[in-house]
Write a structure and sequence with these properties.
With 410 residues, the protein is mainly α. The protein has 2 domains: 4-171, no CATH class; 219-402, no CATH class. It is built from 20 helices and no strands. It has helices spanning 4-26, 34-42, 52-55, 58-79, 85-97, 104-121, 129-134, 140-148, 153-178, 185-203, 219-239, 244-251, 261-265, 267-287, 294-306, 313-330, 337-345, 350-356, 358-379, 386-405. It is globular, with a radius of gyration of 20 Å.
């Protein structure tokens, strides 16, 4: 565990990177109507896919991302937990998804529900910090009930509170299914919970209509801004005595939950890995002719966060390659929205490559694209971590087959 001085330093660095998102949004061209844009984001039903750069404008989306990330950082302090790989992953995932589905209004009830669960169990809140952060995957439940179905606001808030309360118990019991090979375990949990919630809502006559808000006009500017953002992580890590040798040590890890790279190599080297993964993700989007917008940047920032907690180039690239190969066979264009997101978020299956080799990772990516394009209808867009649900299904099936076909050791 890092001593208190190092903890304060890296908490300050995390604060800097979140405030940088807010500053980027405040000074983004065309941000004169920032308050109006934030209001539109807060009132959005926020179902998949709701690109907040379309709904509120790029400036408002970036400010929202920074604010939601700050909520995540505040949770670490409030809970008394130490900043670690898991919390870095949680903070950047919250910030990333705040570009297309999360906002302060719809995440706080879920967090409060997890807190109430910890009180009911009489255990410290930090025990369920991961469930509180990643459980905000089901944030659209709050917004859709309140604004999409036009029910009273307290109804949506109550739905979020209830979802947050049951989230920790479900996540604990679903983890063994994929044995830690799906990094977005809460996405698997939220997908099942969202399916249950959507089924109940449909039973009383409320059906969510799929949405597609997807911006294409900000790719060049966002690529430049976030390219600088990720390069700064690499330079910072090197300046603070991170090493390329340490990155090599990270590459030796399978990434299976729980893989805390900050404990393995320290924060500085972890930040180098984070910056490298961010640049690699942007490069993939450019190579396939994709878009850099709210949803794809959400994917990139999630990869960056999990580069502290399981992902690295060696275990992620085979999965992305598998998605790309599946695109060659199954869809006309890898630059379509769904394949772009599948390649980014499909790295939830990086531990498959890390544990069983690049060919298994390639197969996992191939299967993931097929799965993720068809599971969203189950939860009606209520689960933002749709790839976590798909990844959980793929990992569960593949792990079962691998274990069954692998000769038992004496």
């Amino acid at each position: 565990m890092q001593h208190s001085g190092a903890q304060r330093t890296w908490q300050g660095i995390m604060l800097f990177y979140l405030v940088a998102l807010i500053a980027m949004g405040l000074f983004w061209p065309g941000s004169e109507n920032l308050a109006e844009g934030l209001g539109q984001i807060l009132r959005s039903p926020s179902l998949l896919l709701s690109d907040y750069m379309v709904i509120g404008g790029p400036g408002a989306a970036l400010v929202n991302a920074g604010l939601v990330g700050l909520i995540g950082l505040a949770l670490v302090a409030f809970s008394g937990a130490s900043l670690a790989g898991s919390s870095i992953a949680g903070i950047f995932t919250m910030a990333g998804f705040a570009l297309f589905g999360k906002n302060p209004l719809n995440v706080l009830p879920i967090i409060a529900g997890v807190y109430l669960f910890s009180r009911a169990k009489q255990v410290p809140f930090k025990t369920y910090l991961g469930a509180a952060m990643f459980g905000t995957a089901i944030a659209p439940l709050v917004s859709q009930v309140a604004f999409g179905f036009e029910l009273p606001l307290f109804t949506g808030l109550a739905a979020g509170l209830a979802a947050g309360f049951v989230m920790p118990a479900l996540a604990t019991h679903l983890l063994p299914n994929h044995q830690g090979h799906n990094l977005y375990n809460i996405g698997f949990t939220a997908g099942i919970l969202g399916t249950l919630a959507m089924s109940m809502l449909r039973a009383v006559g409320h059906t969510s209509v799929p949405v597609m808000h997807w911006s294409t006009e900000h790719t060049a500017a966002m690529s430049l801004a976030f390219g600088v953002y990720f390069v700064s992580m690499i330079l910072l890590g090197l300046l603070l005595q991170g090493t390329w040798h340490g990155v090599g040590e990270i590459h030796k890890q399978s990434g299976v939950l729980v893989s805390d790279f900050t404990a393995l190599t320290g924060f500085a080297t972890t930040f180098i890995n984070m910056g490298l993964m961010g640049l690699m993700s942007l490069l993939y989007l450019w190579l396939v002719g994709g878009d850099v917008n709210g949803p794809t940047l959400g994917g990139v920032l999630t990869i960056v966060g999990f580069a502290a907690f399981g992902k690295h180039l060696k275990n992620s690239l085979p999965v992305m390659a598998g998605v790309w190969v599946a695109c060659l066979i199954l869809v006309p264009d890898a630059a379509q929205p769904a394949p772009q997101l599948a390649a980014l978020f499909g790295t939830t299956l990086a531990p498959m490559a890390g544990s069983f080799g690049p060919l298994v990772g390639l197969a996992a990516g191939f299967l993931h694209l097929n799965t993720v394009m068809h599971v969203g209808v189950m939860h009606g867009g209520m689960n933002l971590y749709n790839n976590g649900l798909a990844g959980g299904l793929v990992a569960t099936i593949m792990i079962a087959l691998i274990r069954a076909l692998t000769p038992a050791k004496n």
